[in-house]
Design goal:
6 strands
Length: about 140
């Protein structure tokens, strides 16, 4: 089962946390999605406000990887495991793009990779791999 872009966009932008993050569905093909997010000052993790909290990068990786699978199965999937490697910090004012792609979709588990880059220079900020339950319904 696949899902059309409008329904995928609705699934992405309806949850309150996703709305707070300001997520935008940038591009989608079955098995691959790109999601955009603007880094705002209230997302910083230090008293100087110089870098964005890493948990937001992990969230963005998780959502991009999950939605890569959602683009193929048509429903939201629970995360079982998530691995994140941080490469460099995101800064307030950065526009981030997270691209998730399906590695394997099985009957009970799906695996997807994701990468977060800074729009403009395309420098990788974080990479990750998620495992999701595909045993839905």
């Amino acid at each position: 089962m696949t899902i059309d872009r409008a329904d995928l966009d609705r699934l992405l932008t309806t949850p309150a946390y996703h709305r707070w993050l300001g997520l935008e569905l940038v591009e989608v093909t079955p098995g691959t999605v790109t999601i955009g997010m603007d880094c705002r000052p209230e997302m910083t993790a230090d008293t100087a406000g110089s870098y964005v909290h890493g948990g937001l990068l992990a969230t963005l990786l998780d959502i991009a990887a999950d939605f890569a699978l959602v683009s193929e199965v048509g429903v939201g999937l629970p995360t079982i495991d998530l691995r994140v490697d941080y490469l460099r910090p995101a800064r307030p004012g950065d526009r981030l793009l997270a691209t998730g792609s399906v590695v394997r979709r099985g009957r009970t588990l799906g695996v997807a990779d994701a990468v977060v880059v800074r729009e403009g220079d395309a420098r990788q900020l974080a990479v990750g791999r998620g495992v999701y339950s595909t045993a839905v319904g």
